[in-house]
Known about the structure:
Oligomer: heterodimer
Largest sheet of chain A: none
Shape of chain A: elongated
Helix content of chain B: over 70%
Radius of gyration of chain A: 19 Å
Number of helices of chain A: 11
Amino acid sequence: MSRAERLELFEGEFMPHIDALYNFAYHLVYSEEDAHDLVQEAYLKAYRFADKYERGTNAKAWLFRILKNAFINQYRKRSRRPTQVDYEEIVNYQDADDAAPQQYVDLREELFEGMLGDEVTAAVNALPVDFKTVILLCDIEGFTYEEIATIVDIPIGTVRSRLHRARNLLKAQLKAYAASLGYKDERRTKKKKND
Amino acid sequence: MMYLDNALAPHEVMALQEELSADPQLQAVLADEQKFRALLKARLHRQPATDALVQGIQARLDQEVVGASATEA
Lengths: 195, 73
C-alpha cells in the first residue's frame, strides 16, 4: 500500500470515528489525558497496520479493537509499577460470566426519569471495566454481539451473559441512586400491600 | 433481552412477538427495558474528540511519515 493510499484510507475511513473512539476511551479510563494517549496510540497503530485492514469493511469495529488492545497494554504497563492500579483488579479475564444466573433486574421508568446525566454517567463509570466495556459497545455504540465478540476477543455467549450482568448491575446502581434521592418503586410497594 | 439487541433468529423473533401480543406483563417489561436503554443512551455524557487530539494525531502521523521517508532514503 502506497503512502498516499494509506493517508487517504486514514482520512476517509478511520478519522470519521474519532468522536466515538474518544468517548469510549474516556469512559474506560475516566481521564482526558489518558484517553488522548489511548486514542493517539490507536490511530498510530491503525496507520502502521492499515494494509491489514480491508477497505470498505468495518473500520469502526477494527479501530475499537485496536483501542481496546492499547488499553489492555497501557494497564499492563501500569500494573508492573507498584503505585499504579492493579490491572487484574480492573479487568477480570476469568470469564465466569457464562455460569452466571440469568435473573432480570427491573428498573421502573419513573425511577430513572428523575436522574440526571451526571448520575447515569457516574453509574456507568463505576461499573467494573469489562461490564462497562460491553455496555458502551452495545448500548451506546450499537455494535452487534458478533462485533463485540471480535473487539473484546471473547465468545458470543460471553458477550450475551456479560451484557446481561452489566445491565443488571447498572440498574441496581441506578436503583440505589434513586432510593438515595427519595424515589420509591411504587409498583413493588403496591404489590407488597396487596400480598 | 436479545430481542432488543436484534440478536434473535427470525423464527425466535416471530415466536416472541406472538408471546408478546398475548402477554401484557411481558409487554410492560419490554417497554421498561426499551426506555431504560433509550434514556441510558440519551443521558450518558458523551465526550467528543478535541481539536488538540486531532492535531496531536496529525503531528504523530507526520513524524511517522517523515521517519518512514528518512528510512527509505
